[in-house]
Amino acid sequence: MRKVRTSRVIGDLMQWSPQCREHFFPWLTRAADVMQTHSIAEAGITECHPGYNLERSAPRFHLLVYSTEGAGEVFDSVRFRRVEPGQLLIAPALRPFGYRPVTPTWRFMWFHLPDEETWAFLRKETLTVRKSLFTDTLRRVTEGFLEESRGRTDSHHEASGLYISLIAIYVQRELGSGSDTHVGTGNRLDHLCALVNADLAGNWTVEALANVVGVSPPHLHHMVRERFGTSPMRLVTRLRMERAQEWLIIHDAPQRVIGEMVGYQNEFAFLVAFKRFSGVTPKEFRKRR
Questions:
Q1: Is 121 helix (H, G, I), strand (E, B) or coil?
Q2: What distance in Å separates the CA atoms of residue 85 and residue 255, rounded to the nearest whole number?
Q3: Distance separating alpha carbons of residues 170 and 164, to the nearest angstrom
Q4: Tens digit of each residue's pLDDT (9 = 90 or more) over 53-94
């Protein structure tokens, strides 16, 4: 039997369960001026539970939701989509939508972006759920902002404004340049390099790298070749060797240990890779420095 597609009526609704918690950013600080400068209308952190339900028939703002724990469900008039940790929900202004938790606890950060020129490119968007590159970064920055915003001194106010500036920068990086609604190639690859640098000993493969960026392995090859003039795995090797050079200068650890720290369990493999990259062995490199 053919499945009949039904249309859901989206209203204006805000339902809470008794356990729900929401922390609005305290804009009554110097951060308020910075917020206006960067075109962020409102923001907050929400922890919701079954019974929570939000619907907007014609929202005035573009909404970004960064899911951090648990899962939610977003819907428009014809479809439902699940929102998992590490994913970003984009709901453009004036288009009806709603969301609610589907796990016992759903935590997320949210940002309202005014429907003005800065974010005009979002008007072309449809309700979207995609992988986020900056959820963890934004979470750390947001926590820093909340901590500073509780203070009453001038330095607390100044610091909270700086955190808002960082939030605006990362949101802009997430959304791209405005020529399209996806993260720019440069932003994606910068984020990829940061993740590899944070875990140089990790078991990186082309498939794992492509998954981080959210593209296919062939597409990743094209992106990396165009940006860096090399292959994805040679880029990983470059990052490992650059860090190995730093550690050979700074630390007195044996080259075997440094090799392990950058992902080489075999000392001979590290020696060969290092000499191919640097033109000298780790021992010779250290002596020259």
A1: helix
A2: 39
A3: 10
A4: 999 999 999 999 999 999 999 999 889 999 999 999 999 999
CA atoms within 13 A on the CB side of 16: 7
Residue-wise DSSP of 227-271 = HHSS-HHHHHHHHHHHHHHHHHHH----HHHHHHHTT-SSHHHHH
Measured CA to CA, the distance from residue 80 to residue 94 in angstroms comes to: 18
Of 28-37, 107-116, 183-192, 212-221, the least confident: 28-37
What is the CATH number that goes with domain 13-175? 2.60.120.280
Contact yes or no for 145/165 (Cβ under 8 A): no
CATH 3.40.50.80 corresponds to the domain 184-289: no
pLDDT given at position 185: 67
Instruction: Give, as one character, the DSSP assignment of residue 174.
Output: H
CA distances for 97 relative to 12, 43, 67, 119, 236, angstroms: 9, 18, 17, 19, 41
For the segment 134-157, the average pLDDT, to the nearest whole number, is 85
Distance between CA 180 and CA 213 in Å, rounded? 17
Domain boundaries, the chain: 13-175, 184-289
The owner of tokens 């990086």 is: 173
> What's the CA gap between 82 and 74, in Å, rounded?
6
When computed from its CA atoms, the radius of gyration of the chain, rounded to whole angstroms, is 23
**Section 172-188 average pLDDT:** 61
Angstrom distance (rounded) from CA 110 to CA 22: 10
